[in-house]
Amino acid sequence: MKKLLAAFAAVVALSAHADETLTVAATAVPQAEILEFVKPMLAKEGVTLNVKVFNDYIQPNVQVDQKRMDANFFQHQPYLDEFNKGKGTTLVSVAKIHVEPFGAYSDKLKSLAELPDGATVAMPNDATNEGRAFLLLAKAGLITLKDPGNILSTPRDVDQNPKNLKFRELEAATLPRVLTQVDLALINTNYALSAKLDPTKDALIIEGAESPYANILVTREDNKDAPGIQKLVAALHSPETRQFIIDKYKGAVVPAF
């Protein structure tokens, strides 16, 4: 009888372990691809990972805050800080995963030297990625900023603009689609990859691997120590995942762990 009860308890424990489910919001490339890669690792740990793909930078945070999703994977810390400040949320980062070097692309130019006077430059319209775009333009010597360290720079913060560049602020996801309409577009790597652009070959300017804008896994404060979240962090930080990122993206995405 004792053996039967012990066997029954083991089956119940195994079932409970296998029923653990995580639902994670992510942008398609590379975040969802990386999450799909770690699914088998989590399955061995008794965790079923459901990946929900989003094409915007708002809903993934809203969904996690409203407890419709367990976590998200699409943003960097400066964006999360700005979102929490603006929306009154208290979402937290639980792990740095990778860096997507931010780049500038053109359908019309082969080098920055060809950028004409009065050129139109498109960039993301959210505060942190717009600031990131201006920092990259300043690093390339195209403009100077009143405060070179201001990560939230806007057109009003441009000090010198010798080429009289015209700045066009657009939703980040639309930027690859306007390449034929502008002279230069500053594009987040996940959207560049989705549009079949190769950041290491096609970008006229690109951040280095030392970029502070590492993509992070984000959840709620009350969920950060949950066993499923910690198992997901361990899988994302595994040597296998690191090698997957290196092999698949060949420098367009760089491990941050």
List keywords for this structure.
about 260 residues; alpha/beta; 6-stranded mixed β-sheet; 5-stranded mixed β-sheet
Provide an overview of this structure.
By secondary structure, this protein is of the alpha/beta class. Helix content is 37%, strand content 24%. Helix 2 (28-44) links the parallel strand 1 (20-27) and strand 2 (47-54). Helix 2 (28-44) packs across helix 8 (227-236). Residues 7-18 have low confidence and may be disordered.
How do the strands and helices of this protein lay out in sequence?
Layout: H1 2-18, E1 20-27, H2 28-44, E2 47-54, H3 59-65, E3 71-76, H4 77-87, E4 92-99, E5 103-105, E6 120-124, H5 127-139, E7 144-145, E8 158-160, E9 166-170, E10 184-187, H6 189-194, H7 199-202, E11 205-206, E12 214-219, H8 227-236, H9 239-249, E13 254-255
Parallel strand pairs: 1-2, 1-3, 6-9, 6-10
Antiparallel strand pairs: 3-12, 4-12, 4-13, 5-10, 5-11, 7-8
Helix pairs in contact: 2-8
